[in-house]
Amino acid sequence: DFQQRYAAPALVSGEDSAKFVASLKILMEEKQVFLNPDLNLEGLAAEMNMPGYQLSRLINEHFNKSFFELLNFYRIEEVKKRLKDPRYNSFSILGVAMDVGFNSKSSFNTAFKKLTGKTPSEFRKQ
């Protein structure tokens, strides 16, 4: 039967899954691996000692996001923090975006607007 043959195997047990989610949060929130503009799914998976497809599925199931949506979420949160920080007043918005790992102005603007409902300039003016 097609469904049985091609059904994805169980990701990892609940306990292991919780450990991987905790590890992922540490990498993102404490080590801030998202600041690396070259970070990709395979690189992050290698850092977590798991295959890329498993990490992708873990992110989908636990965060209800794709890898890039998760990456952009953390990057946008960091941009918001920096735009509110007076130490970054002399930086351009694009400079801040590049500093947190975005590679292009258009991908940054699109992600920012999608997550905040505002343009980066509107956000900074608040």
Distance linking N and C termini: 57 Å
Number of H- or I-type helical stretches: 8
Q: Write down the overall mean pLDDT.
A: 90
Percent range of helical residues: 55-70%
Biggest sheet layout: none
Write a short abstract of this structure.
67% of the residues lie in helices and 0% in strands. It is mostly helical and 126 residues long. The N and C termini lie far apart (57 Å).
Describe this structure in words.
This protein has 126 residues and is mostly helical. 67% of the residues lie in helices and 0% in strands. The protein contains eight helices and no strands. Helix 3 crosses helix 4 (52-63). The longest helix is centred in the middle third of the chain and has 18 residues, at 67-84.
Summarize the helices and strands and which ones pair or pack.
Layout: H1 2-6, H2 14-30, H3 41-47, H4 52-63, H5 67-84, H6 93-99, H7 105-116, H8 120-125
Helix pairs in contact: 3-4, 5-7
